[in-house]
Design goal:
With about 120 residues, the protein is mainly β. Helices cover about 0% and strands about 60% of the residues.
Length: about 120
């Protein structure tokens, strides 16, 4: 079993920034892909950002709604994937969760989520 723990959520004014962290209990080399999702009540969960380690190196991808504002990156030494969120908007308010597919366990692991609230 692998645990993923997110921290970094909170309340911020529109235009502000937050950095979310997703720390794994084991090396993140186990995960070929790690994602950040977000969800608000009554809405479908949205894939926000993905970081993938492949044969061509590390690649990232973003939802159109966050491109140019959010950055996903990882720190192997800290077993952590980050989501840097800039120019936050009230529409970014959601619970943000990370996940990772463990290629050794062949399981998808989720963190517990962290609340981000952006005030107008």
């Amino acid at each position: 079993q692998v645990q993923l723990v997110e921290i970094g959520g909170g309340l911020v004014q529109a235009g502000g920034s937050l950095r979310l962290s997703c720390t794994a209990s084991r090396t993140i080399f186990r995960f070929n892909t790690m994602d950040w999702y977000r969800q608000t009540p009554g809405k479908q969960r949205e894939l926000v950002a993905t970081i993938t380690a492949g044969t061509d190196g590390v690649t990232t991808d973003y939802a159109d709604s966050v491109k140019g504002r959010f950055t996903i990156y990882r720190d192997i030494a800290k077993n952590t994937v980050y989501l840097q969120m800039n120019s936050l908007e009230p529409e970014d308010t959601a619970v943000y969760s990370c996940n990772g597919y463990d290629i050794y366990d062949r399981q998808l692991y989720w963190g517990q989520g962290t609340q981000v609230t952006v005030s107008a």
